[in-house]
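[job 4417] fold queue: 2 targets
>>> target A
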Amino acid sequence: MDKPHKLEKIKKNLKTTGDSVQAIGWITIAGNIGLYIWSILDENMSQLGLPVSDLTGTLLIVVAMIVFIVLGKRISKGIDRNIKLYLQVLIGLSLVLLVWVFYSGGRVGILFFLVILYLISSLISINKAMKMEEFTSTLTSPSYKLTKDGWKTFAGIVTLLLFMTFYIDVNKPGISNAELLDQTIRDTKAEITLPIEVDEVTIWTDIQAEENALHYVRSPIFKTKSKPINFILT
């Protein structure tokens, strides 16, 4: 392959990489915000096995993906001298997210693992391209709207928002014992049909809530008086 065609291929690969990084950013932002809103509207969402994040976690993902979008756009132009640095930043950020997702019990960490592999393969290609004088001679130092001072301002705003969201998450009212008891009773009664004959001498007739306990009411078959069995909810 002659040098002009090889240079054209490098530029095309850079555009593909940059566009892919931007797509990852936008899709991840939309997905995480959507899941967070869903978790607010549907308290039973966690029972579906879907990843559920708090407001702080959602903000962290959004911030990280904004960085993906900004750097992806710069990479796609294929003229920036800092392309290699951008890829290294994205790999490092993806590693942090990978560790954080797995630590928080998330099962979508495999996605960040795949992203890291893709970015590493792109970095390897760039390292090879940087050895070509024909390619490096086309690189410049473009002027962007988000300058060094802009990144500092962005970091300051993000830090402030993180403190705010963390405060909201910590002080978010949780479900009370009474609500938990009522929900448990509703769910149980929806799954079974009372009364149920437990054994030869006992019939399970009802479930009742009292303070912090669930009372599973049973009636001896040969007696008329019910005898509650108390299970303390901890």
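>>> target B
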Amino acid sequence: MKKTMTVNISGIVFHIDEDAYDKLSAYLEKIRRHFANDQGCEEIISGIESRISEVFQEKTQNQRQVVTIEDVEEAIAQLGEPSQISGEDDAAQDSGSTQRPEPEYAPKRLFRDPDNKYIGGVCGGLGAYFQIDATLIRIIFLLTLFLGGGGLILYLVLWIVVPKARTMSDRLSMRGEKINLSNIEKSIKEDLNDIKQNLENLSKKKA
């Protein structure tokens, strides 16, 4: 018989074994210490907790209702340890490079991109999937309007059947990047830099 606890991870309530809770708490504490001085620390941790929540939901969506230590270990294996990021940073410094390592890649999934859209994000998602400029895809769709309108029907079908990239995991999968600590950190920092740049541009326009 095991003692279970109730936890709230990224807004989702889970029942979790006590030994699993202890391991998860220790892991999240290591993550918090690692990113404590980073820009966007809370956003990065939130993104990591969101991915952990997704893993636990996948594991408990059928009959089993309790998160086990095996589930926690699988989530940690997917995300990786903070020490692995430190090792990558140290290797980059030793080589004299100030750039972060290239992201690790995984099989891609097609999503609509809400961050690169004019209408439904279909072209942005196709651009990310095929690694081409979304503007080129938009031009192709526009050209088809003058060639029978088949592209419009295709666009509407894709808008209906292709899911929207709602989570951090969806956005990384859309680009074919592994859902791990390094890529979550990279994606969130890029988003924060984009927001900062947009605010600076807005301030310049008003000045």
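[job 4417] complete. Note on B: The first strand starts at residue 4 and ends at 9.
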